[in-house]
Amino acid sequence: MGSIKYDVPRLQQAKSMSCWNAAAMMIGYTYEVGPRQIALEAAYVSNTGITVDEVKKLAKFEGLKLLNSSDHEFTAASLIATLTRYGPIWAAGMWFGVAHAVVVIGCNDSGEGAVAFNDPGDGQEKSRSVSWFNEKRIRGTMLVRGYPPRTIGHWV
Fold this sequence. Notes:
This protein is α+β, with helices and mostly antiparallel strands. The protein has 5 helices and 7 strands; from the N terminus they run E-H-H-H-E-H-E-E-E-E-H-E. Keywords: Hydrolase, Protease. It comes from Aliiruegeria lutimaris. GO terms for molecular function: peptidase activity.
């Protein structure tokens, strides 16, 4: 059985539309100690969320890169390989019926495959199937540092 899971700090978003910021902070804290400056301060203060175009600005501010993943479906094996190469993934999707950002922290290939992610909505780790992940993700909005962090957790 193949799997990977990073030990990424879990944070709960401070405002109703600030999941994007909390997810970026989770990735930032995985690689370096804080404090962290708020990216896209106007969007944070106005609590409006961010657009797909603003995701690129967020990436630049946070030192993240756009993951070239919009034209394919992930399998458990390909998501494990992506996480192994690039580290945790900032990912926007219609995860629970509304646009929302999470941090993908792991994947395993048991059964149809399971994706582990930190949800800033409640600050908890969750897991769903790879097919659910493919169905719900917003194409062209996955961001990575481009290299794995030093700490890897264990799939539980």
